Amino acid sequence: MSGSLGTATTVRPPGSDSDLGERSAAQQRTKTPYEWPARAFSLPAVLLVALLLYLPFVWTTYISFTDYNGLGSPVWVGLSNYRDMVSDSVFLTAVGNTLLWVVGSITLPVALGLLIAVLTYGRRFGTLIRLPFLIPYAVSGVAVGVIWGFVLQTQGALGQVLEFLNLPGASTRWLLEGPLNTFIMIGAASWQIVGVNALLFVIGLQSIPREPVEAARLDGATGWTMFRCIVWPQMRALTTVVIGLSIVASLKTFDIVWIMTQGGPGRVSETLALTMYRETFVLSDYGQGAAIAVFLSVVTFAASIIYLRRQLSGRATS
Amino acid sequence: MKMRHSVAAVAAASAMLLAACGGSSDDTAGGSVDSLKFYNDKAAWKPQFEEVSKVSQDEIGLALEPVGYSEANQYAAFIRSSFRTKEKPDLFTWHTGKELEDLVRQGLVAETTSLWDKAIADGDVPEDLREYFTVDGKQYCVPLQAGYWVMFYNKRIFDQEGITPPSTWAQLEAIAERLKGAGVTPFHQTNVLFTFSWFQTLLTGSDPELYEALSTGEAKYTDPGVVSVMDKWRAMLDKGYFSDPGSKTDPQVMLKNGDVAMINMGTWFNGNLKSVGMEIDKDYGMFVIPNVDPSLATRPMVVEAGPVCTAADATHREEAERYSAWWFTPPAQTAWANARGELSFNPRAEVSDETLASLSDEINKGDYRLMNRYFEAAPVPVLTAALDGFGAFVTKPGDPMPVLKEVQAAADAYWAEQG
Amino acid sequence: MSRVIRPGFLTLLGLIWLAPVYLLVANASKPAELYDPARVWAPLPDFALVDNMRDAWQKAQLGDSIPSSLLYSTIAPLTAVVLGAAIGFAIVALRLRHGFLWFVFTFGSTIFPLQMILMPLFIGYANTGLYDTRTGMYLVYTAISVPFAAFLMRNFFTGVSYSVFEAAVIDGASTWRIFWRIYLPLAKSALSAIFILQATFIWNDLLLGLTLSQSDDVRPIMPALTSLQSTYGGSALPTVLAGGLLVSLPTVALFLATQRLFARGLTLGQS
Prior knowledge:
The structure holds three protein chains of three kinds. Chain A contains 15 helices and two strands. Chain A starts with a helix and ends in a 5-residue tail after the last helix. By secondary structure, chain A is mainly alpha-helical. The longest helix of chain A has 32 residues. In chain A, strands 1-2 form a two-stranded antiparallel ribbon. The relative contact order of chain A is 0.14. In chain A, β1 and β2 form a beta hairpin. Chain B folds into two domains: 172 residues, D-Maltodextrin-Binding Protein, domain 2; 202 residues, Periplasmic binding protein-like II (D-Maltodextrin-Binding Protein, domain 2, 3-Layer(aba) Sandwich), CATH 3.40.190. In chain B, the strands form two sheets. In chain B, strands 1, 2, 3, 6, 7, 8, 9, 10 and 11 form a nine-stranded mixed β-sheet that branches. Chain B has a two-stranded antiparallel sheet with strand order 4-5. In chain B, β1, α2 and β2 form a beta-alpha-beta unit. In chain B, α8 packs across α10 and α17 runs antiparallel to α18. Chain B starts with a helix and ends with a helix. In chain B, 52% of the residues are buried. By secondary structure, chain C is mostly helical. Chain C contains twelve helices and no strands. In chain C, α3 packs antiparallel against α4 and α4 packs across α6.
């Protein structure tokens, strides 16, 4: 990725993001004249997430060190919930499935989203062509769950199509065999999110300055070369957003699995978020559920920081 | 009583003035009211709750304001948490068994022993139901409804094949074989939530004592009796008696379309069938599932009794208790059963539908042994393990032992903790 | 050659994407008693979409909750867009000290699994009087939308040349004016994208609405809608689908109406 960035440097206008990255890194040590306005601009957002998202999570973290069934008072048990979590035989399955979701979500939907954005960007009827991909996101969860249920059930809509086309797999039990059911659910989730990714990529494309593109075109750059050397490096900021969001969302995958298989049959399609939900809401073992939530959050945090640091502030070293 | 009533009305009126802004603030006043918030995990029943509310308003001057949740787990967590806040629920649906015990042990639920004594004396509720609402010798909550688990069948298919409801297990098996031969799937089976229904049917019909011993931890899931039930279940699965367990089609639609000929389910299922336009006696019928073991002395009947409870520190506890007492009575139960189109636990309720009324009579005649539904009978951690295990078992029928061992492991862990 | 491949590929992909939508509409239009799971692809001559929608509307009493849902899904994402842009502006243009840390702090709040903050939020809300109030719902929906807005806006603003800021300072504009008059208009498409995505998210939210409210005039629409789907006597499938379709209409309309904003742009490399 950083290789292609190098080739683009010659046509990058001053003040583009990597340039800024270096400058702000240098200036971070000294106070700018705008420190107080900067604080005032940041305060509302910071305050809101601190009170409504961090505070509840602090409580959850505390609960993870206790034995608590939602009634009475939590009893301090130290690390025992974490020990139980690791020794649960399904824990590894859940970690494996969650990893599948992460890999699946940063490949298929991101690649397809990018492809759709690039192929439709600036074209006549471009927005019209993107619309079919956006509608799934707008459809309410209840309808989505029902639809995929009858598409994917054995001999459901998908099976009927395969049978009609005389293709193999008409009687495949899509949701009943692991890990097939995880793969197929990743597909279903992509259906909903591809359009959003495409939309974000389009915003990235829109923010590309005209000059380098024109300059490159005069140099005879077309198609793939143009994309690789000019467009892609300029879209880094939005690519970071899309991949960053995909990582976070996929680690927390819950809804679609809960609707389609409830983690079954026999817990084979369970993700970490489902294990957490099961412990907390089904078994009322709040401490155990909270421990998984904390573990999940730490992993998510680590993954996104590693990714974001590379993409956002480690720029100067590239 | 009259006097107190009018005082209550005045207090209610002033409380309402204070709480003109709505929302939750009205609960803090603690005064008397003329309507009660009724939290429930049966959001789909809101219209029926409202129908009953009209009757109660006339009869005892109290209305119901249903607040529905459709996801049972979310609902349970909400109720549990609410005890920590000032939003303690006046009336809320709950589960019997361990779930109820949890609340009682923390002193969170109002006792209803005197209400039960009176209702039983009046003949408003069968004595058998009392034990499900009993913790340490005292009663808590009142039954919202009693659903009896029977077999629903598609009448068109039965008529076509010239089949009449069976009175013995052998007949039922013969029917299944015959339907299978005619290309009809005999029974419904699912791999989510109600995975237990056939386990429950087969075990209660073979060895009701073992079924009860399992739920108290006195028997093990790996005992020969349980294994043989699982083997029987597997044999039926292997013969192709059951529908695709992964089907996302609603059971009522499957019965209607003839995808399955029979479904074992609680009597509340009548409402589901009604929603897809099926008429009782015309399109479908019900029969009591015969015992698997013909030598059994009694006929077990699985019942699910969902309780309605009141928080011990509820803001309107007095009104809530008045409501609970009324709930047992024939006017309440007549209104409720007819609104829902199903049976009532109260034998004196006047169920307008004849088929339902005669089923109700039959069950109330007393030669049935009521058994708690597996969903309530098994402690939650055991139930959860069992539901997952059965779900995997019906999806890929095989040696039942690994499944039973896993459930027993959960049971061992649970009972060890209970000491 | 790619003149054929490109439209061909997009058409095929688009059709695949629309197939489930077709299933949704086709089956939501079938009379409840004629729905057959073995024939989901075949449309029926009887068109019962409007009847089914009316049925869903009445059974789930959707009308009660529409005003609240409309309120939440317009005001909360609007606030979040502005707050997110503000912190992005502070970090990128005003160069807030430790800006990256504050950015990580804000974005970091998205990592918490929503299911796990519900119960503490409920307890906190119940004890502060925010439970079952529109203010409370507005605040939580805003908070949950802020991280995404902050992330996207911060990254978007890094693409804006710093000379824009410097030039405005030389002209004597205040930071507020630079933010409001220069940076926000520059980011119109990014802001609208955040708005429509977050508005849709809030409109479709079930968990927060279910947990933090109970009154008919505070509760948003999804908890009402899900009452159609219940083991214990929900509605027929076409009714559920019609209900789902009905409540999706506002969000679909929102996407349709805002697409113009994303149409702008130069063509990249003719092939």
